[in-house]
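In the design runs reported in the main text, the only information available to the sequence generator was the tokenized backbone. The following block is the verbatim input for one such run; it is reproduced so that readers can re-run the procedure and compare outputs position by position.
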């Protein structure tokens, strides 16, 4: 997915991520700031999720 699209939709997507993944705090979402690699790291840290699985969840939030 194009980073420009991600950045443009970040406010909407961050709400979806927070609703779906309650362990993500507002501070986490601010730190992630539409960055896939940071999201993957947070998901690994908080949920023990693999990188590819986190990427799929991140992309699902945009559709």
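Verbatim output:
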């Amino acid at each position: 997915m194009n980073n420009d699209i991600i950045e443009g939709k970040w406010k909407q997507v961050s709400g979806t991520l927070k609703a779906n993944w309650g362990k993500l705090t507002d501070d986490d979402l601010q730190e992630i700031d539409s960055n896939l690699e940071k999201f993957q790291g947070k998901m690994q840290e908080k949920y023990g999720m693999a990188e590819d699985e986190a990427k799929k969840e991140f992309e699902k939030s945009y559709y």
